[in-house]
Fold:
Amino acid sequence: MHTIGSMLDAVARYEPEKAAVLFEGQRVTYSDVNREANKLANGLRARGIVPGDRVLLFMTNSLTLVIAYFAILKAGAIVVPLNVMFRRHEIEYIGRDTSASAIIADEDLWQRERGVREALPVLKHVLVRGTAEDDSENSLSSAIANQTEPPDIPVHLDDIASIIYTSGTTGRPKGATQTHRSILSNVQGCCTRNKFSREDRLLCALPLFNNFAINVVMMSAFASGATLVVVDRFDARKVLDHISGYQCTYFAGTPTMFAYLLQEYNPATDRIESLRLTSSGGAHCAASLVSQVQETFGTAHLDGYGQTEACGFTTLNPLVGVRKVNSVGVPLSNIWIKIVSDDGHEMPSGEIGEIVEKGDAFSIHRYWNRPEINEEVYRDGWFHTGDMGYVDADGYLYVVDRKHDVIITGGANIYPAEVEGVLYSHPKVAMAAVVGVPDPVKGELAKAFIILKKGEEATEDEIIQFARDRMAKYKAPRSVEFVDSLPQGPTGKILKRELRDRISKGDR
Structure:
């Protein structure tokens, strides 16, 4: 198996003039990307970056970001992507936690948060991309060397390639380590399941500091010699225009992104016949939404399941074969899953328990600098996901919900994803999120936050009755709030913790 840097070397050698990245009207070949990555890698080495150093990457989607990612790895260092929405205290936290020695940043982002340098004495190297920094020793351009061959340093499969911080919904954000082996193992499984080839054009509108974007989209494109089409940020109109203009064959996003695309799509003007495959991750995709995507866009839509700790999808519906309603499919190659009870015993098919997983996609280094959490989460060789689900007799996984999202009403469990699936089937509903509201008698009651489709009107009673007609009465929401927007993370994932916070503060 290649390391990530040697994989790029190989593709550039065999496909030098093939388009590697298309961005904002620019076209760069595999030879271009490899050459520029080598030059920057040599420059980083000359600046004193040594194998194992952690390098923060604080950039919006761009060609430079793609090149910088590969350059850091070719220098033997570790990429630590930063959410571009992070502010000073968040960057300081990750910088301290990783003892990062360098940061590569866009000029506007660095100017906004440059005070972090005072708080991070180990941050020796700052490299900024931007016109105001062109003549400075801190300019990224000043770090580009003339050597076009990769640095002559040993990089091993089980070396850490990246540390990506989780959202921190259960406490302090944790750095999920990813090795060359774990990333490429997952990418190989993803490419095989999706049948990617050099003829594909993979559209990335997810932010490239996110695991979904980096490994599922970008790395899959490079591993298969395909073309990566990059959008600076998600915008439904821009994505549809890119699919048409660049003849994209694949698009991956969160369910929220697909809801926006369906609202924006105009069959009279949007030419998307090139699109052969779409996939969703990051949150459960309701069966009705999967059906709408397939019927509207004329593609196969593969809903999947995974996490940053596994470098991407661990299960995915098959492109060829049976795709079961509401299932997130079967494990990728070299991934094993099982369902366990609270005391660790494996559950029979059809019974709900915690989803646990193992395989080459999981880093042997686990979470960065978190021995106590590693002991709790990684047990007997299995990663405990904290997600609830079940496996049917054919081995298909069904994700019910996150443990901490489960609503307990009168002693009975309500899984919000199930309720949301019903709500998404309502013809007037564009988006839905269900959370628990404290109740002195029942403990909790389900509340739905609803965004209606353009031009539609509905009442609270109408939505509640619709749900009651399709599921047990106790599962249906007891209250409904119609909103214009829902709090979302950078990938479009709905942030239920913010909805719960709003409720806990009395804003119901």
Observations:
- The mean pLDDT is 91.
- The first strand starts at residue 19 and ends at 23.
